[in-house]
TrEMBL record:
Gene3D superfamilies: P-loop containing nucleotide triphosphate hydrolases. The lineage of its organism: Bacteria, Pseudomonadati, Bacteroidota, Bacteroidia, Bacteroidales. This is ATP-binding cassette domain-containing protein. SUPFAM superfamilies: P-loop containing nucleoside triphosphate hydrolases. InterPro entries: AAA+_ATPase, ABC_transporter-like_ATP-bd, ABC_transporter-like_CS, P-loop_NTPase, Type_1_exporter. Residues 18-252 form the ABC transporter domain. Pfam families: ABC_tran. It comes from Muribaculaceae bacterium Z82. One of its GO terms (molecular function) is ATP hydrolysis activity. Keywords: ATP-binding, Nucleotide-binding. SMART domains: AAA.
């Protein structure tokens, strides 16, 4: 993967964008997160890693203000402490899930979902940034093309890039949460999506759940979750000894092979003249 370098943000040199203090969460009586504490500096890129069921998606939901912790608290400059779900915080947040929702609506309305006042120029620019400019140019109805149920079908990669365009079209949303946005696509599609993801991360505070070792070089901090608890956190290089076991089911060898495969896929896409 090639793209933006990790930011220089650190807990000691940047304003805190988000702070978790002993956060816990349960659903239907079953504990999912326990005593989670971490700090996200403004402008930092933080990766959440862990095996399936470790609590990554739930932690992202709490941090984005979509759910409230059962114990502990989360604090941000915009939302204060205790209730991140208030409107001021949510107005700064963009959330891209594993499987992006495509509305049965025009491409324009899909991209401008969180910013209805966006101009056609802003929508088009966001689509071009995520690599959907060529697709748009090939559609007779352009931004008026209806997608989703009953409309034009989009591939998994196109749907994910559409969700990224939503995040890009609103410059006021400077906090980006990504929940394994490439988990449901193959390596070739991920290689096509990678430049768009990296562009979406530029200039924003980012928290991304991922199981791909190859993404971690773009992050300042990695938080390792196991059974709902933070078991390690630090710079990617300082955690190299344990990341292989949680980023790929085959262990370090499998993670390294995946890393090389994704690099090769991306270089192949860029090297043969095709736009990634």
């Amino acid at each position: 993967l090639r793209g933006c370098a990790p930011s220089a943000a650190s807990a000691g040199s940047a304003e805190t964008m988000l702070r978790c203090e002993g956060a816990a969460f349960s659903r239907d009586g079953a504990p999912i997160l326990s005593d989670v504490s971490l700090l996200v500096p403004q402008g930092a890129k933080v990766a959440l890693v862990g095996r399936s069921g470790a609590g990554k998606s739930t932690l992202l939901s709490l941090m984005a203000g979509m759910e409230e912790p059962c114990a502990g608290r989360l604090c941000s400059p915009a939302g204060g402490c205790g209730r991140l779900a208030q409107a001021r915080w949510r107005d700064r947040v963009s959330f891209v899930p594993q499987n992006a929702a495509v509305l049965a609506a025009s491409i324009r309305d899909n991209v401008a979902l969180y910013r209805p006042c966006a101009s056609d120029g802003q929508v088009r620019r966001a689509l071009e940034q995520v690599g959907l400019g060529d697709l748009l140019d090939g559609l007779p109805d352009g931004l008026d093309t209806v997608v989703g149920r009953g409309g034009r079908a989009l591939s998994g990669g196109q749907a994910q890039r559409l969700a990224l365009a939503r995040a890009l079209v609103d410059p006021d949303r400077d906090v980006l949460f990504l929940d394994e946005p490439t988990a449901s696509v193959d390596l070739w599609t991920e290689a096509e999506m990678a430049p768009a993801l990296l562009r979406a991360m530029e200039g924003r505070t980012v928290v991304m759940a991922t199981h791909r070792l190859s993404w971690l070089e773009h992050f300042d901090q990695v938080v390792v979750l196991e059974a709902g608890r933070v078991v390690a956190q630090g710079a990617p290089g300082s955690l190299a000894g344990i990341l292989g076991g949680v980023c790929a089911p085959e262990g370090l060898a499998g993670a390294a092979a995946e890393h090389l495969s994704l690099r090769g896929a991306l270089e192949g896409r860029c090297g043969d003249g095709r736009q990634a």
